């Protein structure tokens, strides 16, 4: 791949353009808002000038509702040898393209499983896709050259290719991406009118659950409008579980011992099913989930503190597998949880204490 055209310079389009430009590909940028394309170009993602001839690959990075029309116009204009989109739903756009009579041999639907709460070219980064799954949905009619160019794009962005059927992909992202967004927003919405005293008690649990609720509502309306059925199916199951959980909690309020036992059993059931589901989430580097233990340390909110604790962990010969930070409300301090292999806990704890850290049990 020597040349590429990125149509749509939001977070995903600009991030792909930055990755390609950084690896020597001549990237041309196009957007319905020329100012956004200029911003992406100013960040080093390519040029906002149109290509003089056909490019090797056209990447359509527009909201799902506009994918088919944008792709059809690009194919009709003959702007590239191969075309792909990066929208978060795949079945609908393909069927719309078929209805428009578009030749799909030169097209491949793809979806990089990466993103941020922020949007637009200023939020883009060249490493957004590194190590992340990038779904490809070829059909029997997909030209081999198109598939090879898509694989080259994935490699240049340092992502991991995953081949799936388009409709299977849409059902999967409904479960692992679209429904979590709505559930996070539903929980966060409870905070809008909550008493200030309650809000000040927010800890790491509520921060974890509501992190993605900060996402752009307009963007998510576009995404959910393109995949409503599968998302509604998942939410119907969640709603059924919620109904059962509410009944179990009400039973715990009952005076009857038998009802309280039934209520406790119902709560335990949903919690255990949650344990089982969480255990299936891939762990580090996509491997089976590992069991880590945490070493919790009080850390000040000053420059260099994180670097110092990581350096001290290195002196102990311990690899930090994951990190979580819980900030203390109204204080210039917090608790950092260093996730390590169980056998490393004693050595790390001893070293950190020797180095003056306040290790908490």
From TrEMBL:
Residues 2-283 form the Prephenate/arogenate dehydrogenase domain. The keyword Amino-acid biosynthesis applies. Belongs to the prephenate/arogenate dehydrogenase family. It comes from the Bacteria. GO terms for biological process: tyrosine biosynthetic process. GO terms for molecular function: NAD+ binding; prephenate dehydrogenase (NAD+) activity; prephenate dehydrogenase (NADP+) activity. InterPro entries: 6-PGluconate_DH-like_C_sf (IPR008927), ACT-like_dom_sf (IPR045865), NAD(P)-bd_dom_sf (IPR036291), PDH_C (IPR046825), PDH_N (IPR046826), Preph/Arog_dehydrog (IPR050812), Prephen_DH (IPR003099). Pathway: Amino-acid biosynthesis. It holds the Pfam family PDH_N. Keywords: Amino-acid biosynthesis, Aromatic amino acid biosynthesis, Oxidoreductase. It comes from Streptomyces mashuensis. PANTHER family: PREPHENATE DEHYDROGENASE, PREPHENATE DEHYDROGENASE [NADP(+)]. The keyword Membrane does not apply. This is Prephenate dehydrogenase.
């Amino acid at each position: 791949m020597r040349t590429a055209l990125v149509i749509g310079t939001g977070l995903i389009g600009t991030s792909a353009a930055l990755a390609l430009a950084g690896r020597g590909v001549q990237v041309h940028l196009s957007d319905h808002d020329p100012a956004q394309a200029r911003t992406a170009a100013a960040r080093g993602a390519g040029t906002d000038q149109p290509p003089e001839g056909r490019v090797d690959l056209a990447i359509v990075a527009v909201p799902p509702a506009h994918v088919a029309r944008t792709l059809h116009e690009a194919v009709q204009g003959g702007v590239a040898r191969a075309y792909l989109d990066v929208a978060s739903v795949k079945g609908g756009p393909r069927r719309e393209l078929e209805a428009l009579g578009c030749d799909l041999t030169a097209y491949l639907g793809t979806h990089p499983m990466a993103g941020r709460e922020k949007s637009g070219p200023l939020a883009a980064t060249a490493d957004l896709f590194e190590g992340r799954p990038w779904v490809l949905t070829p059909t029997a009619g997909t030209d081999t050259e198109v598939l090879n160019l898509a694989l080259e794009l994935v490699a240049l962005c340092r992502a991991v290719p995953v081949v799936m059927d388009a409709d299977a992909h849409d059902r999967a992202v409904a479960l692992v991406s679209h429904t979590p967004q709505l559930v996070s927003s539903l929980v966060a919405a409870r905070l809008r009118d909550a008493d200030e005293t309650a809000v000040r008690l927010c800890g790491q649990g509520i921060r974890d659950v509501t992190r993605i609720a900060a996402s752009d509502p307009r963007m998510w309306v576009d995404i959910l409008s393109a995949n409503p059925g599968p998302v509604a199916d998942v939410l119907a199951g969640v709603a059924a579980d919620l109904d059962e959980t509410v009944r179990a909690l009400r039973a715990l309020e009952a005076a009857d011992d038998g009802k309280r036992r039934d209520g406790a059993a119902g709560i335990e059931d949903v919690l255990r099913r949650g344990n089982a589901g969480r255990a299936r989430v891939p762990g580090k580097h996509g491997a089976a989930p590992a069991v880590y233990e945490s070493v919790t340390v009080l850390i000040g909110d000053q420059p260099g503190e994180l670097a110092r604790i990581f350096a001290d962990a290195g002196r102990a010969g311990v690899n930090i597998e994951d990190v979580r930070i819980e900030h203390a409300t109204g204080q210039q301090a917090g608790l950092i949880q260093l996730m390590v292999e169980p056998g490393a806990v004693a050595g790390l704890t001893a070293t950190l204490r020797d180095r003056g850290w306040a290790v908490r049990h």
